Amino acid sequence: MAQGVRANQAGGPEVLEFCEIEAPNPGPGEVLVDVEAAGVNFIDTYRRSGVYPMDYPHVVGVEGTGHIAAVGEGVESYRVGDRVAWHEGPGSYATQVVVSAENLLTVPEGVSAEVAAAMPLQGLTAQYLATTSHAIKPGDTALVHAGAGGVGLVLTQIIKHLGGNVITTVSTEEKAELSRQAGADEVFLYGPDVDVAATVRDLTDGEGVEVAYDGVGKDTFDASLASLKPLGSLVLFGGASGQVPPFDIQRLNSSGGIFLSRPSLVWMVATPEALAKRWAMVSSGVEKGWLDFRIGETFPLAEAAEAHRALEGRKTTGKVVLTV
């Protein structure tokens, strides 16, 4: 038997149960991994809560790192004992998980288990945001909401590496300092009395930004739209505050012919070649020292419910990780 964290029904963190689960076996093209650490992500909370349709019960989690314990038929690129990470391995909140060999990523030398578990989803997401959803050009200015969150910190570093400028929003002075350490050019606190769009325009001599990267969703969508230059891009990649309600698409026209996208990682790494290319930039950045992953909090696997509460309460900075 193995141990894992199971969502028994749709609901809040209280539906998560740490329990014994059947030990998985790798099929053709798959590997069995002894998990060292698992990443905690908003997609896990969406699947637990029912925002994303799922079958229940199911073992939660998709991201992690560990050592290969067994290989299935047809797997030739990996061997027992190899250290790997993955961005898509359903059931990763467990002591053992089966992962498709096509989704495996090689962990850079010397990287801790916590960082290795943090790199795949946040690293790959930030990479596609800055290179594909809106390809940053030298001199571009980007608005990044939740600048001290896991994706926000990584995205800021990648934008700066590509020659862009970064304005971030955060909720506390402590988070503002973390955002500045990541390279943000301007940081300001948002709240009910703060006009985000007006502040952004003040910081850009009235012009606005080329792109707004918005993973917060409902609470920031209108401000993101109002912060853009004509022909700017609003990249909505998450809904930490809730999903954006339906809106009149003519607003994009009246706001300056805005480009709106709602990307997802699954489409950005749909082929092994695309996954390898994006991971190469992320892992190279870590190896060369220009890309850092901040571990905000770690929880034992058995305390996954507390990890979800911390993440959904937006009390965390950087990455939340479960250790096995």
Compile the SSE list and pairings.
Elements lengths: L1 E6 L8 E6 L8 E11 L1 H8 L8 E2 L4 E8 L11 E4 L9 E5 L3 E3 L6 H21 L7 E4 L5 H12 L3 E6 L2 H9 L4 E4 L6 H8 L5 E6 L6 H6 L1 E9 L13 H5 L4 E3 L3 H4 L3 H17 L6 E6 L3 H9 L6 E5 L1
Parallel strand pairs: 9-10, 9-12, 10-11, 12-13, 13-14, 15-16
Antiparallel strand pairs: 1-2, 1-4, 3-5, 3-7, 3-16, 5-6, 6-8
Helix pairs in contact: 2-3, 2-9
Assign the CATH superfamily of the largest domain: Medium-chain alcohol dehydrogenases, catalytic domain
Structural class: alpha/beta
Task: Give the mean pLDDT.
Answer: 96
Q: What's the total helix number?
A: 10
How can the largest sheet be summarized? 7 strands, mixed
Topology pattern, helix = H, strand = E: EEEHEEEEEHEHEHEHEHEHEHHEHE
- The CATH topology assignment of the largest domain is Quinone Oxidoreductase, Chain A, domain 1
Task: Give the overall shape, derived from the CA principal axes.
Answer: globular
- Could you give the distance between the termini? 15 Å
Q: Provide the domain count.
A: 2
Radius of gyration: 20 Å
Features:
alpha/beta, seven-stranded mixed β-sheet, mRNA 3'-UTR AU-rich region binding, 324 residues, single chain, 10 helices, Rossmann fold, 16 strands, Quinone Oxidoreductase, Chain A, domain 1
Describe what this molecule looks like in 3D.
With 324 residues, the chain is α/β, with parallel strands linked by helices. The protein has two domains: 2-120 and 272-323, Medium-chain alcohol dehydrogenases, catalytic domain (Quinone Oxidoreductase, Chain A, domain 1, Alpha-Beta Complex), CATH 3.90.180.10; 134-262, Rossmann fold (3-Layer(aba) Sandwich). It contains ten helices and 16 strands. It has helices at 42-49, 113-133, 150-161, 173-181, 196-203, 221-226, 250-254, 265-268, 272-288, 304-312; strands at 2-7, 16-21, 30-40, 58-59, 64-71, 83-86, 96-100, 104-106, 141-144, 165-170, 186-189, 209-214, 228-236, 259-261, 295-300, 319-323. Strands 3, 5, 6, 7, 8, 15 and 16 form a seven-stranded mixed sheet that branches. Strands 11-10-9-12-13-14 form a six-stranded parallel sheet, sandwiched between helices. A three-stranded antiparallel sheet has the order 2-1-4, with no helix packed on it. β13, α7 (250-254) and β14 (259-261) form a beta-alpha-beta unit. α2 crosses α3 and α2 (113-133) packs across α9. The two termini are 15 Å apart.
